[in-house]
Write a structure and sequence with these properties.
Length: 661
């Protein structure tokens, strides 16, 4: 599978809703229909967001339609009308939340600040926002007073930060008049200062002229303690409220150039990148020069793209990790994470700086296979795919490291990462170590203490990193490259900042078995492999929430064909995206063949140019060689993959075959 699809642009770096009560009346006792004008914003408006409201009685209702170009939608509620209200606005897996104490509220802005209010509210009620959304009935035990208390304490912190660091007044971040993408004070604050954290802590990352000041406030802190802590932490701190606009401008400029990608556009795209300089001054991104990478990216002919959501999700020193939802002309969208670095007064995209092409993923693999005796098996595995290929541009083979040490940090913990943090991280043992091994062919590496060249690393092999992946939606894998003498090849030369490695890739959440399959099948059995015919219709219904599989009968028919003596030179693979849970994205389809008589070389099929090319629920695979017969193979594999929170749910249809004499 080629990693040079849209997902790869701008790999992360370490070292890459206004709610206005309207009409109707009333309120908080429930039973009376209300209309809520909603605006979703991260500073810039969020277009195309779906909105869900859960009320204080546990009733859930979805707004009709999605937000417009200004992030606005009028939401009519007829059942979810009892205060307090928990609101979730989501676009392609990126969510914002708010808790609204009363239906009488004049305005409630759904922003990263209101998300912090919702997380504080959930923590005070002994829950999390994710749990409240997943189990709406648990909202029935909450009160408007709890919602009001959560809103008030976050508001008091926001007021201090705004006044003390920027000299601006914010009266109420939840309810004051606010229009996204403007120059008013609240918009500047939301666009530049990062209000985030997890389910127990509020983190505030304040950009300054010289870096980022980070503040953490535990949700269980008293109001007076929190206010005193924030007041002391922001003393003599001056916020740069132009950062947010400049970050967004760089990213939107890059996206605008993708449509044409002519020679001048490519030169401009290269200029928007910052890359680490190896010996000799060569600057790389995924095994190519930055110019070579941009050219390869443009060859995919992705077409015009437009940003629908841009949000800074982590800040540290002069770096930021930005989440962007982009949409093509066919209205298909995908979420990407982009690393950015402040260079002088400008913000630039950051290369992954790796001298080899790579695509590291948390993968939930559901495999179907027709065996030589005709038996059809289904099996589940969860592993890290640490795929790499050193042949992106072969003239950089000399820069391949002897050893790759992989460290990991939860994305939520990236905010405010400083010299001390980096020093501590680098002093700890790496989560994984890979050794260069030329016997592994183009993959070049194997896991330390293993003779196996496979870079599919099972969860049981590396439990420490999987525990981290289970606990967090996003984790950053930091790659430290060492030469034959043990010297770091990609470390920052600034000793004062910890000499940290300037290469990283994102890893997604590792979901529990029950989250994917529910109670439809026994975990031990599915991991060992069960017969296709033994699986119930309930299993396939549950599976389709995560995997874009064909129907059970279609899978059976397809497996029979690829296991037969006659296949032809091409075969069409179909899948079902309609039954996927909301915001699961089709990442791609791919496959390959091991032909008889030529050893064990793997040859990839043709595949779509990019994730956003998949406008139909089908794809035709053709034999890699003109006129070749698929039946003349010792192995065939076809994959349909979806993606959510950077995790991949890959559905395989495979056939080990007997070669014809």
């Amino acid at each position: 599978m080629s990693p040079t699809r849209l997902l790869a642009f701008g790999l992360p770096f370490l070292a890459g809703l206004a709610l206005t009560a309207c009409g109707g009346s009333g309120g908080g006792s429930g039973g009376t229909a209300i209309t809520l004008p909603l605006t979703v914003a991260t500073g810039a408006p969020v277009e195309g967001a779906s909105v869900q409201v859960i009320d204080g009685a546990g009733a859930t209702e979805s707004c009709s339609g999605t937000t417009d170009a200004q992030g606005v939608i009028n939401c009519q509620l007829s059942s979810a009308t009892t205060a307090p209200f928990l609101v979730k606005a989501e676009r392609s897996g990126a969510a914002l939340y708010a808790v609204i104490p009363s239906a009488e509220v004049a305005r409630a802005n759904i922003t990263p600040i209101s998300s912090a209010m919702a997380r504080k509210f959930a923590a005070d009620t002994g829950s999390t926002v994710e749990s409240l959304v997943a189990n709406p009935a648990s909202m029935a035990g909450t009160s408007s007073a709890q919602a009001e208390a959560a809103v008030n304490i976050i508001n008091s912190i926001v007021k201090i930060v705004a006044q003390q660091t920027a000299g601006i007044t914010v009266t109420n971040a939840l309810t004051q008049a606010y229009t996204a993408n403007t120059t008013d004070n609240l918009d500047k604050l939301i666009h530049s200062i990062r209000f985030g954290g997890d389910n127990s802590t509020l983190t505030i990352s304040i950009p300054t002229a010289t870096g980022t000041v980070a503040i953490s406030v535990a949700f269980n802190a008293s109001a007076s303690t929190a206010e005193t802590s924030v007041t002391n932490s922001t003393s003599n701190v001056t916020a740069d409220l132009t950062d947010g606009d400049r970050i967004t401008q760089t990213l939107t400029t890059f996206i605008s150039l993708v449509g044409s990608c002519n020679v001048n556009d490519q030169a401009a795209m290269v200029n928007l990148y910052d890359a680490y300089s190896y010996a000799g001054g060569v600057k790389l991104n995924s095994g190519r020069t930055v110019a070579g990478w941009v050219q390869k990216f443009c060859e995919q002919n992705i077409g015009s793209l437009s940003p629908k959501m841009v949000e800074t999700v982590a800040r540290f020193d002069n770096f930021a990790i930005v989440r962007a939802v982009v949409e093509n002309s066919s209205k298909q969208s995908i979420t990407v994470f982009v690393g950015m670095k402040k260079v002088g007064n400008d913000w630039k995209l950051v290369s992954d700086n790796l001298p080899f092409n790579s695509s590291w993923k948390t993968r939930h693999a559901l495999s179907t296979e027709v065996q030589s005796n005709g038996t059809k098996k289904v099996q589940y595995e969860r592993y890290l795919d640490m795929w790499n290929d050193d042949k992106a541009e072969s003239n950089y083979d000399a820069l391949l490291p002897t050893k790759i040490e992989v460290y990991a940090i939860a994305l939520k913990d990236m905010n405010g990462y400083s010299t001390g943090n980096w020093t501590t991280l680098m002093a700890s043992a790496p989560k994984m170590t890979f050794l260069k091994d030329l016997n592994c062919g183009t993959r070049s590496y194997r896991l330390e203490n293993s003779s196996n060249c496979s870079l599919f690393i099972a969860d049981s092999t590396i439990p420490d990193i999987f525990n981290l992946l289970k606990a967090n939606d996003f984790t950053i894998a930091v790659a430290r490259l060492l030469d034959s003498n043990g010297n770091c090849m990609n470390c920052n030369s600034d000793v004062a900042k910890g000499n940290f490695p300037e290469s990283a890739l994102p890893l997604g959440k590792a979901y529990d078995f029950s989250e994917i399959f529910g109670a439809t099948v026994n975990e031990t059995s599915l991991k060992s492999g069960v017969e296709l015919s033994s699986l119930s219709s309930a299993f396939w219904t549950q599976v389709k929430k995560h995997y874009a599989t064909p129907s059970a009968s279609a899978v059976n028919t397809f497996l029979s064909r690829i296991g037969s003596a006659s296949i032809g030179s091409s075969i069409e693979v179909t899948w079902d995206a309609a039954s996927l849970a909301p915001n699961r994205q089709i990442e791609g389809v791919w496959g390959g063949i091991v032909e008889c008589g030529i050893g064990s070389d793997w040859t990839e099929f043709n595949e779509p140019n990019a994730s956003l090319d998949l406008t139909e629920n089908k794809w035709t695979f053709r034999h890699p060689s003109d006129g070749g017969e698929l039946a003349n193979s010792s192995y065939l594999s076809f994959t349909i993959a979806t993606r959510f929170t950077e995790s991949e749910f890959a559905f395989y249809m495979n056939a080990p075959r007997q070669c014809r004499s």
